[in-house]
Amino acid sequence: MIQVGDKLPATTLMEFIAVETEGCSLGPNPVDVAQASAGKTIALFAVPGAFTPTCSAQHVPGYVEQAEALKAAGVDEIWCVSVNDAFVMGAWAKDQQTQGKVRMLADGDAVFTKATGLVLDLTGKGLGLRSNRYSMLVKDGVVATLNVEGPGQFAVSDAATLLAQAKAA
Question: Which residues participate in catalysis according to the annotation?
Answer without folding.
Answer: 55
